[in-house]
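Blinded run. Sample ID left blank on purpose so nobody reads anything into the name before looking at the predicted structure. Input follows.
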Amino acid sequence: MNPCPCGYLTDPAHDCTCTPYQVQKYMAKISGPLLDRIDIHVEVPAVNYKDLAAESDGEISEKIRERVFLARKRQNLRFEKEKSIFANAHMQSREIRKYCSIDTQGQLMLKNAISKLGLSARAFDRILKVSRTIADLDQTGQIKPEHLAEAIQYRSLDRQLWLY
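Blinded prediction complete.
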């Protein structure tokens, strides 16, 4: 979705013509409970021509594919004794508590995120599942604070930053 009716609220190259009321009304079109069920929210800014035309020296698809393959393999091994779970996204509360343990620093980080950003219990569980997946992609058994921080960043629509 766009950040506002005109689409330019977060665009550095264009001025937004919307009033705060219009932005708030636009954002309210998607209910909080629906938004809460989406695991990853990512703002995708406009890309300028120079960046589009530049030679990319980013990670090649084959390396990314291998990382995803290894993460899925890790998940298959983790859930081989679970009857209806085939990926981290399928975990319910009981499995989240079992497979998504975080250290004291991670617990403090998540506590601060929940209280300061006003995140729901559903967002809490989703952050843990996404951080478990990020750790799997990193090929680590333990969810580290950096995995948790990345997962928290993916909850941007939960924050009031969208509103003026």
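Unblinding after everyone has recorded impressions. The chain has a mean pLDDT of 89.
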